[in-house]
Design brief:
Helix content is 35%, strand content 7%. Helix 2 packs across helix 3. The longest helix is centred in the middle third of the chain and has 17 residues.
């Protein structure tokens, strides 16, 4: 019987990382933002850059990056990529998707 399991050169696994955006102006104001577009605060920018430094230190690279089309997500991904200091910054475009926006399902007083 033939062995159809993937060999070492044909990995069948996919690793998916979910990374939340840095602190935004809405977060700092303690607002439930949903689809409201707001920029990162200085703290959020620092958080995104720290992520990039950590990715570089750990040797972590991504082949694809998808982010919400909102400013806070886009800014987080761009700062993290720039600070990663790897070829990933040049080779990996951030794909923005409306479908990746957060979903808010509160009835009241979330």
């Amino acid at each position: 019987m033939a062995d159809h399991s993937p060999g070492p050169e044909k990995s069948a696994s996919v690793e998916i990382w979910m990374i939340r955006h840095g602190e935004s102006e809405g977060n700092a104001a303690r607002l439930v933002q949903g689809h409201t577009d707001s920029s990162l605060t200085m703290k959020g920018t620092s958080q995104a850059k720290a992520l990039g430094h950590w990715l570089r230190a750990e040797g972590i690279q991504f082949s694809h990056i998808y982010a919400s089309d909102l400013k806070r997500a886009r800014q987080t991904s761009v700062h993290a990529l720039q600070e990663s200091g790897t070829e990933m910054h040049k080779a990996c475009n951030v794909q923005e998707r409306y479908a990746l926006r957060e979903k808010v399902s509160c009835i009241r007083d979330c």
